[in-house]
Design brief:
Keywords: Cytoplasm, Methyltransferase, rRNA processing, S-adenosyl-L-methionine, Transferase. It is found in: Cytoplasm. GO terms for molecular function: rRNA (cytosine-2'-O-)-methyltransferase activity. This protein has 10 helices and 10 strands. By secondary structure, it is α/β, with parallel strands linked by helices. The protein has 3 domains: 110 residues, Tetrapyrrole methylase, N-terminal domain (Cobalt-precorrin-4 Transmethylase, domain 1, 3-Layer(aba) Sandwich); 106 residues, Methyltransferase, Cobalt-precorrin-4 Transmethylase, Domain 2; 49 residues. The protein has a 5-stranded parallel β-sheet, with helices on both faces. It has a 5-stranded mixed β-sheet with strand order 6-7-10-8-9, sandwiched between helices. Helix 6 packs across helix 7, helix 8 crosses helix 9 and helix 9 packs across helix 10. 37% of the residues are buried.
Length: 279
């Protein structure tokens, strides 16, 4: 006797802004799905209407209810229903809920299939002109400065390109923290990807005040790797440090000012040199 059919979970990428980026396969999967999981079911309904996909059965699925929804979704799959997981835009799981569900499906023997497509981190990298690999995707940054600084210190040490999402009201402060923690690097702010007002703003962390950072819309930020060939020698850095010491200020402030005047030195590294000298 044949076993009853079990449903499949599809992880479906949806357009970032341009509806033409939905793949034919994604359209087919979404049209056929018995249930659609979405962070915002109203927004998903409007998207599907714009895409010409008929009425669907939706279930809200976001960070604070994901754990409770897993059992319900597994029950749907057990009944042979195919389920599609979408985010508000782009590829699910990248800074969006879904990891726990995918893991539970794997553990319970349910098939999980990706339906790839638009991804803001990849789209931004592809058109930024900054080194695309290796790169580390940090998602949305923490809200506390101390946590952002710790994250930059940890992953900045890998010398990889860093990619993250940031809120418009925190962009200036975050780039200042990046300059203090990572030293002078190239950066790119990708705004409103694939939309009418798409924009790529390029600059250096040491000269971030030269670019317009009062921006609207969705922001993806890329900070390039350190340019080793431009690294200021230790002797030159020491000379700049001496000048900043004479200007006065607390050691950490002196280190920050020094790091912004040289290449390849983080404020932390300069501070350590300053403390070694003081000791």
């Amino acid at each position: 006797m044949d076993e009853p059919r079990r449903g499949r979970l599809y992880v479906v990428a949806t357009p970032l802004g341009n509806a033409g980026d939905l793949s034919p396969r994604a359209r087919e999967i979404l049209s056929a799905a018995d249930l659609v999981l979405a962070e915002d079911t109203r927004r998903a309904g409007l998207l599907f209407k714009r895409l010409g996909i008929g009425a669907k059965r939706y279930m809200s699925f976001f960070e604070h209810n994901e754990e409770g929804r897993v059992t319900q979704v597994l029950a749907e799959l057990d009944q042979g229903h195919d389920v599609a997981l979408v985010s508000d835009a782009g590829t699910p799981l990248l800074s969006d809920p879904g990891y726990r569900l995918v893991r539970a499906c794997r553990e319970q023997g349910h098939a999980v299939s990706p339906v790839p497509g638009p991804s803001a981190p990849v789209a931004a990298l592809s058109a930024s002109g900054l080194p695309p690999y290796p790169f580390v995707f940090l998602g949305f940054l923490p809200r506390r400065d101390v946590d952002v600084r710790r994250l930059f210190e940890e992953y900045g040490a890998t010398k990889a390109t860093l990619v993250f999402f940031e809120r418009k009201n925190r962009l200036t402060a975050t780039l200042e923290l990046a300059a203090e923690t990572l030293g002078d690097r190239e950066f790119c702010v990708a705004r409103e990807l694939t939309k009418e007002h798409e924009q790529f703003i390029l600059g250096r962390l040491s000269k971030r005040e030269d670019v317009q950072l009062d921006l609207l819309g969705e922001l993806t930020v890329i900070v390039g790797p350190p340019a080793e060939e431009l690294r200021t020698s230790e002797a030159e850095m020491a000379a700049v440090l001496e000048e900043e010491v004479l200007r006065g200020g607390r050691p950490k402030e002196v280190a920050r000012r020094t790091a912004e005047r040289v290449c390849g030195w983080t404020a932390k590294a300069v501070y350590e040199r300053l403390m070694d000298k003081s000791g």
